[in-house]
Design a protein that fits this description.
Elements: E1 9-12, E2 25-32, E3 35-40, H1 46-52, E4 62-64, E5 68-78, E6 87-88, E7 93-96, H2 99-107, E8 116-125, H3 129-135, E9 139-142, H4 155-165, H5 168-173
Parallel strand pairs: 4-8
Antiparallel strand pairs: 1-2, 1-9, 2-3, 3-8, 5-7, 5-8, 6-7
């Protein structure tokens, strides 16, 4: 492995259809010789969102981070670090699994709910698997450009990034979800 996709965004190509990665935007949190770890930024999980409503008195969205370990909960947090257990994503964002501390920080108004995004599960790749998928053009790797990881997102994020890439990506952005209908 000569490079790392850590901190970059993966945009699924229309070749990936029919599963959780169809029209996905994935933030790569870690990528090294051991494999890769990331979170899907644009797939809401209504079932987990309902469960989290039990913790809070207001509606909160939970996202499918990926197909691996859906019983695990991850938080991307913007701003101040309210836990000692975290992985830095950028100077402004970090990732944590410290559910107790995050919930307590939100309930005590130490952390604004607008500055967190909750994920159920994650996306994982074994050594060299992500590189092979990128080589097979299953993913387009994009440098991050002013993307707020804590904003609520849906399929419009995938389309918007595709349109911003221009060229052949414009065709993909405007293609139907089921490309066999094209």
């Amino acid at each position: 492995m000569n490079h790392s996709y850590k901190g970059k965004i993966l945009i699924s190509t229309p070749d990936i259809s029919g599963d959780i990665f169809s029209r996905s935007v994935v933030l790569v949190i870690e990528h090294n010789e051991s494999g890769a770890f990331g979170l899907i930024l644009n797939k809401k999980n209504s079932q987990m969102s309902s469960k989290f409503k039990d913790f809070f008195d207001f509606k909160i969205e939970v996202y499918d981070g990926g197909p691996v370990e859906n019983d695990k909960v991850f938080f991307i947090v913007k701003g101040q670090k309210v836990t000692e257990i975290y992985t830095e994503i950028t100077d402004e964002y970090y990732l944590t699994e410290d559910i107790e501390r995050i919930i307590n920080a939100v309930l005590s108004n130490e952390l604004d709910i607008q500055n967190i995004k909750i994920f159920s599960g994650y996306s994982g790749w074994s050594p060299n698997q992500l590189d092979a998928e990128v080589q097979r053009k299953m993913w387009t790797v994009v440098d991050v450009y002013n993307l707020d990881y804590t904003l609520p997102n849906d399929q419009t994020l995938w389309k918007s990034i595709m349109q911003n890439l221009g060229g052949e990506f414009l065709l993909w952005a405007n293609s139907p979800e089921d490309i066999s209908l094209n």
